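User: I'm preparing a small set of examples for a lab meeting where we compare how different chains pack in three dimensions. I only have the primary sequence for this one, and I'd like the structure in token form so I can line it up with the others. Please keep the answer compact; I'll paste it straight into my notes.
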Amino acid sequence: MHVMTDFNITSPFAIEPTASIDATNDKMIAAGVRMLFVTGGDGTLFGLVTASDVLGEKPVQYLHDHGGKREDIMAQDIMTPHSELQALKLLDVEKSTVGDIVETISKLQRQHVLVVESNETKSGESIRGLFSTTQIMRQTGIEITVSSRADSFADIERAIASS
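Assistant: Understood. Below is the structure token output for the 163-residue chain.
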């Protein structure tokens, strides 16, 4: 729990689905985060968008598939939709060690993993917090390797440049 960003303590940052890719990037920089929730005006969660989504291959792929210009791309075009988000249950997290969480994040090959808890007032679950590999590495000094395979040309270029 000590390496989880707890949304009962810290408010999450969000952006509207129609925000431009540049506005999304600017908000992440201003907030000092690498992930934003994509939400509607009523707080409905549509998905999340990361710095990797904004700066990686997703915009290039979107333009290849749909045409247009980079400035036409919106957060909703490159976000990970709600239906594809993976989450850990708070009850499981409370029984886990940091090592368990690091191993889970590595297996999921994600930079961010949500934590949900049962919502007693409404049926279903609500998002309670978030694990971020950057935050865990900052707090613990544990190096986390999320993926050893290249998912894009940008990943290949980074691997070549670092060797």
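A couple of notes for your slides: The domain at 5-162 is CATH 3.10.580.10 (CBS-domain). The mean pLDDT is 86.

User: Perfect, thanks.
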